[in-house]
Give the backbone structure.
Amino acid sequence: MTLGIFRCAAVDSKETLSEPQISPAKLKLLMHSISKLDISHLITFDYPQQNAAGATCTAQAWAKTPPQLHGAEKAAVIARIKQLLIEKNAALVAHYYVDGDIQDLALSTGGFVADSLEMARFGKNHSAKNLIVAGVRFMGESAKILSPEKRVFMPDLDATCSLDLGCDAADFATFRALHPDRTVVVYANTSAAVKAQADWMVTSSCALAIVHQLKVEGKKILWAPDRHLGRYIQEQTGADMLLWNGACIVHDEFKAVELEMLIAAHPNAMVLVHPESPQAVVDLADVVGSTSAMIKAVVEGSAIEYIVATDNGILHRMRQLAPNKVLIEAPTAGNSATCKSCAHCPWMAMNGLQGILNCLENASGEIFIEEDVRVKALGCVERMLDFTQNHPDLLAKAQHGFVKNIGAA
Ligand code: 13P
Ligand code: SF4
């Protein structure tokens, strides 16, 4: 088992909170979890983040990777999962970043592999009594918010996200209270307790269309938590947005200088960038989009080569859907580093086959959300699903905005 400690995203708003830190309660919880682990396996990741005032956050989080199964053992676990999915009336829903074996298992058992928007919709619409969500915590919570009548399980409940960790519900309430005139739009990568305070939830698939629409309606926006996605949406729509200062520890690592060198070496490659990446990296993109938009670009694009700036778990599905295209991972480090392209979310990596089996055999990893929080969070999630279903035209138009040089929606 490999464990890692991460210094995670600083979390003060530009305007209101001066102390960049995870709340003491959440930090205590994390440190308690760490203290239960075998420290000899810990790997420290030096990941300082700065707040708007230039102070460095030293808050920590941890992740662990499950044991890899091989050969006959792996085949036996897969066979048992397939059998139990039927017996227990369960469906497996996976994100593009999780292990390729899990993605294949989801697809071969009538489950689903998708971006965070379509994972939520699939879970809601599916008739199964039980959902196994292979992804990170907020994805399981979104499924439970939408389907309280279903039991929702995750292979490892500790699989979280730096954006979620970096947006404490109490701190967010303070930020919100200072700006009561603003429409609150939160990214899917937040806890149920933060969604309970929001008017809208968005994912990277629909954020541009929804914020554009809010701007047309004359709304001013309070945005959390990803500062890079928020900045990008602000630039594209011209909306009046106040941004929380959170970041994804995976996408924040892409390096523009290195990417420029890679582009020079592959002048005909199309550059695909997830909008959680820093501005200098986004500015080099041919296509800026969600995981599903990036896959679509590879499948439909006329180029042979694609430079991909997102978690490298996505390459599995891209290779399956576009076997003749050449995929090149965007750099996260310079020439002297030991790892040049190591964009892989430590929390997505916590999903393993054994964890899925535990969900089905032992009902482990079940998601519970307090009913009053769930009911409050439901409004913003349903609003997003209704909008995306009822305005495919606006969604498609906004997705044009993701293509460089075509301009905003
Ligand atoms: P998508 O909504 O594009 O799948 O992104 C989710 C995510 O966590 C990206 O890091
Ligand atoms: Fe969160 Fe980044 Fe991991 Fe996505 S890749 S789940 S945004 S930490």
Notes: The pocket of 1,3-dihydroxyacetonephosphate (ligand 1) is lined by residues 115-117, 189, 203-205, 248, 276, 290-291 (CB under 6 Å). The chain has a mean pLDDT of 84. The radius of gyration is 20 Å.
